[in-house]
Amino acid sequence: MGGGAFIAYLAAYEKNQSYPQVNKIVFLGVPFYPEEYINGEDTVELKNANIVHMKFAKKMAEVLPKDIEIMIIGGDLNDGSKSDGAVSLKSVLYGEKLFTKQPLKVHIIKGSEATHTNLHELPQIDRYVADFLWKNSK
Length: 138
What we know:
DUF915_hydro-like; 5 helices; alpha/beta
């Protein structure tokens, strides 16, 4: 849910110089489908979800700042769920449709340790994040 709130912040306030400016952001296990975070913990069932997703992605591509570097990291338990146990891989990868104009890196961690609550504990993710944030910084 924090990822959805941050996308809204970027869309609404990033161009306002009186607010902190964002250079890079890491989305770790974030669901990007809007119906997964617009109603708190309860997922909203959308009619015509594909159309809504297409329109939402197009709008976000227009309004999100183009100079922010973005990293998306998701988990796949490799148990057939195509998820980290809480967030579907499909929703994580929908971020690729939202950030079409921004420099983007995507990593999918696979295996039984790739649970939603464990992603932040994995050394592999620490390396991805450290390299992204501090190597070749602007």
